[in-house]
Amino acid sequence: MLMWMIIMWTTLGITLLGLFYLCNRVSRFYFMEKLSKGKKKQKFWVSVLIVFGVFYLIGFLLNFMNAIVCVVYFAMIWLVCDFISALIIRYRKKTFDYYYAGISAIVLSIVALSVGWYLDYHVWQTDYTFTTAKLRMPLKIVMFADSHTGTTFHADGFAKHISAMQAQNPDVVIVAGDFVDDGTTRQDMIETCRSLGQMKTTYGVYFVFGNHDKGYYGPEHRGFSGDELVAELERNGVKVLRDETELVADAFYIIGRRDYSEVKEHSGYRKSMSELVQNLDKTKYMIVADHQPTDYAKQTIAEVDLVLSGHTHGGQLFPFNRVGQWIGANDRIYGHERREKTDFIVTSGISDWAIKFKTGTKSEYVVIHLIPENL
Predict the structure, then answer these.
(1) 102-156, pLDDT tens digit by residue?
(2) Same domain, 19 and 69
(3) How large is the C-alpha radius of gyration of the chain?
(4) Per-residue CA distances from 242 to 66, 182, 310 (Å)
(5) What is the DSSP letter of 122?
């Protein structure tokens, strides 16, 4: 809790500094002289009106989290443009007739945020291939996380993503948490569960909870509870695993963990990795679905073969991608890592939570090809 309070107040401080920096920069444009009739105080207040007005408009249209992101990006890019402009002026020993640094900053900021919007709303496929001596036949896994239904898409959009995943003809599908959110309507929840249940696979569809799936504000806020979500998933043939292990086709295990938020935020309990694997046949391939990538050391000791996670959204925003890893909140932010005998994959997810831009990653679902060594 202390960590998030520090992050919140730091973000607020950076936002306020960014807003006043932008007010100062906007006041340097030539058109501000005409608007203010050359009066310094009037120029300042006109620039405040413009900057804070745009900030409020973005907050009204998208939400204030996204308005903060826009302010931070405009301020960062503007700082860089001003710095480069200062170097050029120093080299050429002559100022510019127009405020080219400001014009460049606005254009580059709009381009960067537009690209971030596209990377968030468009979903790619990311493939991984591993060989193993523990399987006798190839296995194709489709894994996705962080759909947060109702943010970048609703039930109809989710159905389109499911169609793209279905085209891969997966043997098994694993949903690694944050399937729904506090903003998900009951109808969206029902329809997305139905779409998920319509997937045709060899061995089925498996689901583990993320920190948002049960909802932070109670069932009255969104119209359904975590238990109702489970009931709807199971009604559509989806297997929900909560600290449970499933032996599939006598060939491999899927180990679904309770989310770390059960311990961290709700004073609950989840089994340790050693408890979950202690009675398993270690000669069979072991796949762990664990929403948050926070238990790599113990999962490595347990010698599970593959760990699938989401939660981080791939870091989401450059240059802050690695903050979660730097402060120790996550073992990995994105992609593949191998520790001893264990492969770890963290996906950036097919959607987001509140922020509508992905400037440091892209939205994706993951296809994993497991190939027997003797093939």
Answers:
(1) 999 999 999 999 999 999 999 999 999 999 999 999 999 999 999 999 999 999 9
(2) yes
(3) 24
(4) 34, 20, 16
(5) S
**Residue 375 pLDDT class (50, 70, 90 cuts):** low
51 plus 148 within the same structural domain? no
* Same-domain status, 134 and 67: no
pLDDT digits (tens, 9 = 90+) for 251-304: 999 999 999 988 876 677 899 999 999 999 999 999 999 999 999 999 999 999
* Structure tokens given for 373: 């060594």
Read off the amino acid at residue 366.
Answer: V
Q: Which of 59, 89, 70 is nearest to 14 (CA)?
A: 70
Whether the per-residue pLDDT at 214 is higher than 80: the answer is yes
The torsion angles phi and psi of 296, rounded to 5 degrees, stand at: -60, -40
In this structure, what are the phi and psi dihedrals at residue 26, rounded to the nearest 5 degrees?
Answer: -60, -35
Regarding whether 271 and 292 lie in a shared domain, the answer is yes
* Torsion 34-36-40-45 (CA) sign: negative
Q: What are phi and psi of 270, to 5 degrees?
A: -140, 150
Question: Are residues 296 and 168 both part of a single domain?
Answer: yes
- Give phi and psi for 152, each to the nearest 5: -90, -15
Structural domain that includes position 52: 2-119
d(CA 261, CA 209): 10
Round to whole Å and give the CA distance between 328 and 331.
Answer: 7
pLDDT band at residue 3 using 50, 70 and 90 as cut-offs: low
Q: Is residue 319 reached through a cis peptide bond, with omega within 30 degrees of 0 on the bond before it? A: yes
**Alpha-helix residue ranges (DSSP H) falling in 211-369:** 219-222, 226-235, 261-264, 273-277, 296-301, 323-326
- Residue carrying the six token digits 């501000």: 32
Euclidean distance between the first and the last CA atom of the chain, given in angstroms as a whole number:
50
Looking at residue 266, its pLDDT comes to: 67
Query: What is the H or E stretch that residue 245 is in?
Result: strand 244-248
Provide the mean pLDDT of the chain: 92
Angstrom distances, CA of residue 339 to CA of 48, 151, 156, 303, 307: 52, 34, 39, 9, 11
